[in-house]
Specification:
Layout: E1 3-8, E2 20-23, E3 26-29, H1 30-47, E4 51-54, H2 65-74, E5 79-86, E6 95-100, H3 104-119, E7 124-132, H4 141-144, E8 150-157, H5 163-167, H6 172-191, E9 223-226, E10 231-234, E11 244-248, E12 253-254, E13 256-263, E14 266-272, E15 278-282, E16 288-291, E17 315-318, E18 324-328, E19 338-343, E20 347-354, E21 363-368, E22 371-376, E23 380-382
Parallel strand pairs: 1-4, 1-5, 5-8, 6-7
Antiparallel strand pairs: 2-3, 6-8, 9-12, 9-16, 10-11, 10-15, 13-14, 14-15, 17-20, 17-23, 18-19, 20-21, 21-22
Helix pairs in contact: 1-6, 3-6
The chain binds zinc ion.
Length: 383
């Protein structure tokens, strides 16, 4: 458990004119996105037992940077984590993190952020990290003036032709949930603590997955799910360490199988994640299984009466997320605290559905760790 300086980029008086974008006559302030993501990161960190120090109140007026860093230094925090969105030209997209160039601990933290971004299936800007130095555009106050290791994250380009949809558009809800987990996973790994009490970096993955009997068919459909923890996946058809881009744990997988391809002596599935990015994973049934004939469709809550003994309305299966869904304390994704996360494909006792606030697909009411919890409607399916 740690004391964390959580720094939301900019206050609510910074746009217009400065920090944000305008599109088709509508204003999209950066602080609004930073605060939405920051709120999720904050409650997810708190659910892992950390103490949070905030130099900038969520959605409050802008606090000068020197006031913020003085607070973090006075409070003797273990790390400072700053949340922003980037701006550039429409062709530039991707996520990245800044660290002060002489601090190896900050650098390690920044690299862990970039790794988790890639694992979640999102792109990085360059390799996802930038050294922050005096005398250049990277000379960032937050990185320079903090005593503790510090990272400033740029969570996509507000101006980017691809990123806009994630940061402000139709994909914002899922993006914020995914990125909140990216942030907390990076911080937990850096602290040497587990994520949700289970994702401790432990078992080495099978280093040379040997696919078993190849099937005759070269086309496949449905989703592929890992049977083991830490199963490697690749950015091209390869078994080589250098092409590994991430790992999936048991029960986690990819929603779309494109086809099966022969790689060396074995086979891999060419798969897509929910963002449409393409990866390769072993097709050996010792390591993976194919579930269903098509990707799970997001469904609206419409619970039926059920005789199941799990919850009043049976069970809820987590679908339509990249990795895991966030369980909230009340049916309002912008104003609730997070109770934890539930991995895709797993099930929970379901009580029913409620309309709630700030979700066009409503919310599922579930039992979670002996409490009532709420999951965004499109991330669950009654089973
Ligand atoms: Zn910013």
């Amino acid at each position: 458990m740690a004391k964390i300086g959580l720094d939301y980029g900019h206050g609510n008086n910074t746009f217009p004119p400065d920090k944000g974008v305008s599109k088709n006559g509508k204003n999209y302030p950066e602080y609004d996105f930073n605060a939405k993501l920051g709120r999720k990161v904050k409650s997810l960190l708190k659910s892992h037992g950390h103490t949070i120090v905030e130099g900038q109140p969520l959605n409050g007026r802008d606090v000068p940077l020197i006031t913020r860093t003085n607070l973090y230094n006075r409070e003797n925090v273990d790390l400072v984590w700053s949340i922003h969105a980037n701006a550039g030209t429409p062709g530039v997209n991707g996520r990245c993190s800044f660290y002060w160039h002489t601090s190896s601990k900050s650098k390690d933290l920044a690299f862990k952020y970039a790794e988790e971004v890639k694992k979640a299936g999102y792109s990085t800007h360059g390799n996802g990290t930038h050294a922050s130095k005096r005398g250049s555009w990277t000379n960032l106050h937050i990185c320079r003036e903090t005593t503790a290791p510090a990272v400033l994250t740029e969570n996509g380009f507000m101006t980017g032709s691809k990123d806009f949809d994630l940061v402000f558009g139709a994909k914002q809800d899922q993006y914020i949930d995914d990125m909140a987990q990216v942030h907390v996973k990076a911080i937990q790994r850096w602290l040497g603590e587990s994520f949700n009490g289970k994702e401790k970096p432990s078992k080495p993955a099978p280093s040379n997955p040997k696919p078993s009997k190849p099937q005759t068919s070269t086309s496949a459909s449905g989703r592929v799910e890992s049977k083991v923890n830490g199963l490697r996946f690749y950015n091209k058809p390869s078994w080589s360490d250098k092409d590994v881009v991430g790992r999936v744990d048991k029960g986690i997988g990819f929603p779309t199988i494109v086809k099966k391809v022969k790689v060396g002596k074995g086979n891999q599935y060419q798969v897509k994640n929910s963002k449409g990015s393409t990866f390769y994973i072993t097709a050996a049934d010792k390591y993976v299984k194919v579930v269903g004939g098509s990707a799970p469709k997001a469904s609206k809550p419409a619970p039926k009466k059920s005789t199941s003994n799990s919850g009043k309305a049976g069970k809820l299966k987590i679908v339509g997320v990249s990795n895991a869904a966030i369980v909230m304390s009340k049916p309002d994704r912008n104003n609730s605290s997070n109770l934890g996360t539930v991995n895709k494909g797993s099930t929970l006792p379901l009580n029913g559905s409620v309309r709630g606030k700030n979700s066009s697909s409503g919310y599922w009411e579930v039992k979670y760790k002996g409490k009532l919890g709420y999951i965004t409607g499109k991330y669950g399916k009654q089973v």
